Amino acid sequence: MDPAVLRDDMVDSLVHPSKGCVQSDAVAGAMRTVPRDVFVEDERGAYADRPFERLGTRVLAPSTAGRLLEALAPRPGDSVLVVGAGVGYTTAVLAEIAGGRHVQAVDINRQLVYEARDNLSEAGYAEVLVDCRDGADGLPEYAPYDRILLEAAAVSPPDALRDQLTEDGRLVMPLGTTQQSISVVDSDGDVERLGSCAFDPMLVEGEQANTVERNRTHREDREFAERDARRRKGWELDWIDWD
Fold first, then answer.
1. SS3 of 111, please?
2. Beta 57-59 vs 52-54: how paired, if at all?
3. pLDDT (tens digit, 9 = 90+) per residue, 144-159?
4. Which residues neighbour 65 within 8 Å (Cβ) at sequence distance 6 or greater?
5. What does the alpha-carbon distance between residue 199 and residue 233 come to, in Å, rounded to a whole number?
6. Three-class SS state of 125
7. Alpha-carbon gap, residue 104 to 143, rounded angstroms
8. In CATH, which of 3.40.50.970, 3.40.50.150, 3.40.50.300, 3.30.300.130 is domain 3-227?
9. Angle of CA points 18, 96, 90, to nearest 5°
10. What is the pLDDT of residues 192-240, one digit of tens each?
11. Are 173 and 157 in contact (CB under 8 A)?
């Protein structure tokens, strides 16, 4: 069957009130355009509403991708960063909306970075920059961003990502551990929770994918310590000479 027909059927099901996870014309139009079968090695199955596994990462189901994109609310010309690019499908949808030159993506897995670059090029979005980075650090060279999408769960919004937002920018991410919610975070750190979800935890450099608790707490421990240090006042900041 013609992939374009399969894409239309997929998006029609996402727009239908029974799911209702895609509502905007921008997201619906982009998902009708991006050839998902380039990113999933199953031309017909690529348009089924289910996730796939590829190179140790989960390719999001179309309905999950739609929920994230609707929460992100990207606009043409927005500067966008995707953290956890995976195979590149969600990044391609964002490139279709915002424009490929306005979209950057990072992933901690170098093999996935190469995969995403190849897929994006084949799908017609070669302008998108994809780099191998620790996602918690973002991509400060191209900041600030109007929109940041984090496709992995964390206990709290990474400070570096929030700091790389424009004044009216938004970060969309799965927030939580065993109980997660798709959340919108603004540059002031205010959080709006939109609904439950289930994502793998965000990994940091040097950690193993199967050490779930460590992956979730290593960055937070460091950031909480830094915040605590910044909050100290008075004699705690002064050098005391006991001699």
1. helix
2. antiparallel
3. 999 999 999 998 899 9
4. 31, 89, 90, 93
5. 38
6. coil
7. 10
8. 3.40.50.150
9. 60
10. 999 888 888 887 665 534 434 444 444 555 665 676 666 655 555 454 5
11. yes
Structure-block tokens of residue 70: 């609707």
The H or E element containing residue 224 is: helix 212-231
| Distance of alpha carbon 192 from alpha carbon 202, whole angstroms | 20
* Gyration radius (Cα) of the chain, Å: 19
Average pLDDT rounded to a whole number, residues 151-177: 93
Which distant-in-sequence residues (6+ apart) come within 8 Å of 42 by Cβ? 52
d(CA 131, CA 96): 19
**DSSP symbol at 37:** G
Residue 13: closest CA among 35, 37, 31: 31
User: Would you put residue 148 in left (φ > 0), alpha (ψ -120 to 50) or beta?
Assistant: beta
Listing DSSP states for 53-93 in one string gives EETTEEEPPHHHHHHHHHHH---TT--EEEES-TTSHHHHH
Domain ranges of the chain: 3-227
